[in-house]
């Protein structure tokens, strides 16, 4: 103990810490304006009335309200004092991320322009600063569509300075800070096995002083226990203004502690620059180091540290409603924690480089990572476009070079999607050629920069990538597959990927995306693709995951998407949100998250009553019979017993980490409790479910307290978030009961129930998006009395634009004028109703009527057609 103390005192006295690197955020109290005044960069401009904001900042709250969110320029200004002491120093400012382009000015003078919204950049502020005085840092930010990636994409292009800004102050002699936003130090493990490893450390140092100096670069390799195991050093003479590279190889490290998802053991490399004259520390930084190796194969899948491993994980976007992309570091870290807890060992950082906090967490928690730049959907032919791609790849690789979690660099996602769909055929070949040229050039850069990692790109379900040769460029290819969602059946997935492997046995494959949308408000006992029910999403994942786990040639997979994310141009059930997440935007896990957890976690018991997404239920009841409704459990226990209000409903074997009980529900609340044993450990879960029983036959007694609401034209029950009212799935009329007669469920295109277009004037989109067309009548066999009747309409019979990311060949491309009457018990209540003319297309219309039902005439609403089709989107009946 005494000895250690002595040494550390000694170290301090040898390497004086007087002149070290100073790092601090400059995030608070920036001025912000979208007014774009002239001279916005100038010190004389008065910004007193500008909004005061903190970084991370995003200006696009409007992207949760409208697809026409603000995409343009805005200014940020930061006033700060640069102290006189800094005069002897070199001062840098690092911007971790500004979307999409940034022009930086200091004290009115132009410093730099950075293009690309997802990589960091650093400026040397020194020559622009006024020491001992107030300075002005002004940044013009532009998130409009420009000649750089991404040209399009199924995600919101949130604008702003949305990641941290740092001020980094160092002595005149320092580790290089202007190398593509990197740390300036690059660590490789050219040899690594369980027996031994070697480390290669490269870097640049810089002398910004007017005189030359003699320095020493000392690199300490520190093991996970904090012990220095090797010190590599080199003396260098630095002339004034000179930048010098160094390269140091370690001696053999025997039996290195390996980094892996189960045991993410990290070494550190501490790089210290010392002034030889006085032994003072000039500059010092630490970088992570991990010992691991891996191999992708076409037929055998993936190997990590010499052993087969299935990569199973997530894709992740960087936003969170309502903040846009302006997340704090702890929010990023929380997401990685949630992924790790689920049992993921892999993440595709999609579709662009993300915050350093993400990579830091991947290293620490043991999440193997794929990171990529955002060439999405298509490319431009310009040299400028390609140049930005190259710069962004270089920045990504250099900035995140030292993270052992990263094993793969990617650079394209579905790069032919828009090319195929939206570029005229005669121009397409040129775009394919350019896409390939860009891919080949980026591939070269990656292999020169970082020969130790694999390269990859992701494709959509099309043979165009094989035909154009794009699938032969990278080490690994990713397939984004949505059979059972955008295409008809789930098994199409198994067939497609098996065939790919047969045709191209040497392609190393990852299922880089697969997923299905879900909306907590929608529930179905007969789920179908594209109904956005919670149940269909569960069915989808319960099919895909076992196939991925079973097929040996599949190296791994990443779910699309970990969290519901912002996509302003998307409509569907939750406009402006892509709801394929395993978690909601606020990071509450959906039940299906626990399917993954049960499947993946072997170290802890998992038992989850999968009804948090469906704890308010309803169903149609015949007489006094209980209503049967399924209750699902996700668990890794072999067997589970379920109890309802303390009474056992029996034990069930768990299959595919799932068991379903058909539970007899009665009106009211039931407490469910489940018990199991996992590797000798007891585990349990409990929750309340409330149930509303809706009578199949209506009579004078049960009608009194009833508000009967039906989601016409849908297989799903819909619960409004605002009123908590549930609209039952539609049903056909039978004598003595209630339901529709005539007509069909409306499909916007093959396999897509309802319309996918946003409905104006409501937040209950799914209720209005589904409808019954050519309906003859809706009937309720009810006793006499006075009723309030509510009819819901939205005319969706209109041409709509091509929504390219919808991955469908078909669009809603019909147009039809619809005129019909509303006749209630033979009385024409509304004549020649033309919804679209009166209210516009895709607009929610609710009509209420007070009707009297006499004797035993019952209630019948008819829709005689004058032109086009009659239709009905929802109906509600209440006795007064
Ligand atoms: C894809 C895209 C991704 C979309 C996803 C979807 O294939 O790569 O950006 O968000 O599909 O949900 O449609
Ligand atoms: Ca409906």
What's the arrangement of secondary structure elements?
Layout lengths: L1 H13 L7 E4 L4 E4 L17 E3 L19 E10 L6 E7 L2 E2 L1 E6 L2 E7 L5 E4 L8 E10 L17 E2 L3 E7 L1 E3 L9 E8 L3 E12 L5 E10 L5 E11 L4 E7 L3 E2 L12 E9 L4 E10 L4 E3 L5 E3 L2 E2 L2 E6 L12 H14 L3 E4 L6 H10 L2 E9 L6 H17 L6 E8 L3 H6 L2 H25 L4 E6 L4 H4 L8 E5 L10 H13 L4 E6 L8 E2 L10 H17 L3 E6 L5 E2 L10 E2 L12 H10 L6 E3 L6 E6 L5 E9 L3 E6 L2 E7 L4 E8 L2 E11 L2 E15 L11 E5 L5 E3 L6 E4 L8 E4 L2 E2 L1 E3 L2 E2 L11 H5 L2 E2 L3 E4 L4 E9 L25 E6 L2 E7 L1 H5 L5 E9 L5 E4 L2 E3 L3 E2 L1 E6 L1
Parallel strand pairs: 25-26, 25-33, 26-27, 27-28, 28-29, 29-30, 30-31, 31-33, 37-43, 44-46
Antiparallel strand pairs: 1-12, 2-3, 2-4, 4-10, 5-9, 5-12, 6-11, 7-8, 7-10, 13-15, 14-15, 15-18, 15-19, 16-17, 16-20, 20-21, 22-23, 23-24, 32-45, 34-35, 36-38, 38-41, 39-40, 39-42, 42-43, 44-60, 45-46, 47-52, 48-51, 49-50, 51-59, 52-57, 53-56, 53-60, 54-55, 54-57, 54-58
Helix pairs in contact: 2-3, 4-6, 9-10
The structure holds (2S,3S,4S,5R)-3,4,5-trihydroxy-6-oxo-oxane-2-carboxylic acid (GCB) and calcium ion.
